[in-house]
Amino acid sequence: MTKQFLFLSDFDGTLSEKDFFHVIIDTYFQKDSEKLYADWDHKVMTDLEYLSRIFQSIGRDEAGIDEDILRIPFDPNAKKVIDHVQRLGGDFVVISAGTDYYIRRIFQHYGISHVRIFSNPGVYANRGIRLNVDPAGKYYSPLYGVDKEKIARDLMQDYQTVFYAGDSRPDLEAALLADTIFAKGKLQPLLDEKKKPYVAIRNFADVEDYLNRHKEVFTDGSR
Q1: Taking 70 as the threshold, does the pLDDT of residue 73 lie above it?
Q2: pLDDT for 87-140, tens place per residue?
Q3: Which family does it belong to (predicted)?
């Protein structure tokens, strides 16, 4: 049976104001931060390889890493939007090229439940976070670990209306499949290049405002 609507969202930089790997670099690798950020910008390795190295190099026990995770500046309006979506009968799903290790802990900390998470599996190992990515997995991407477009394409088949919120290049193909796109940061010019309309947002307060002003999007199925 087709459900009414689905809200897909990236995590780092979208549901949070700062990527977790930025938190780690700025806290523990300040002397090397310029090079580390340059390597990220110039894509000297895949995002998956880069994040795997950063997360494995944290050098703290599990309790210490939990403290680091709680330094992630989680959008204070995100829970309101998630609750709003769920209250109206929609499903909220996170698609992230980071790791579920910190996303699940953030959601637990803020009392967020009933949210499916598609992300790179992570476990604590050797004073860091190890990403356990399966190259044979259904949604595997050699660049990001997870292929957001494949996930979105599969999930959206069961819904009349799909929203997508994202902020960067890995979100582009998945966002293009949605009926309404909420775009931050680098995703905006990428959508401009595709001549794809979107709702420009700074944070989830803007998402909440849009949903309150456009209640018809929850009833007008476009699939």
Answers
A1: yes
A2: 999 999 999 999 999 999 999 999 999 999 999 999 999 999 999 999 999 999
A3: Belongs to the HAD-like hydrolase superfamily. SerB family.
3-state SS track over 182-196: EECCCHHHHHHHCCC
Which tokens belong to 193? 């290049």
Nearest to 153 by CA among 173, 172, 180, 183: 173
Tokens of 47: 């995002």
Q: For the chain, what is the total number of helices (H) and then of strands (E)?
A: 10, 10
Taking the complete model, does pTM exceed 0.90, yes or no? Answer: yes
Q: What is the pLDDT of residues 167-223, one digit of tens each?
A: 999 999 999 999 999 999 999 999 999 999 999 999 999 999 999 998 777 655 444
Please list, in sequence order, all residues whose beta carbon lies within 8 angstroms of the beta carbon of residue 99, skipping any fewer than 6 positions away.
Answer: 51, 55, 119, 120, 121, 122, 129, 131
Residue 127 tokens read as: 């004073």
Asked whether 151 and 175 are in contact (CB, 8 A), the reply is: no
Domains parsed from the chain with CATH numbers: 3-17+74-120+140-218 (3.40.50.1000)
To the nearest 10°, report the CA torsion of 86, 92, 98, 104. Answer: 30
Burial of 39 per CB tally in 10 Å (0-12, 13-18, 19+): middle
- Two tokens, residue 41: 């910008």
Q: Report, as an integer, the average pLDDT of 15-43.
A: 97
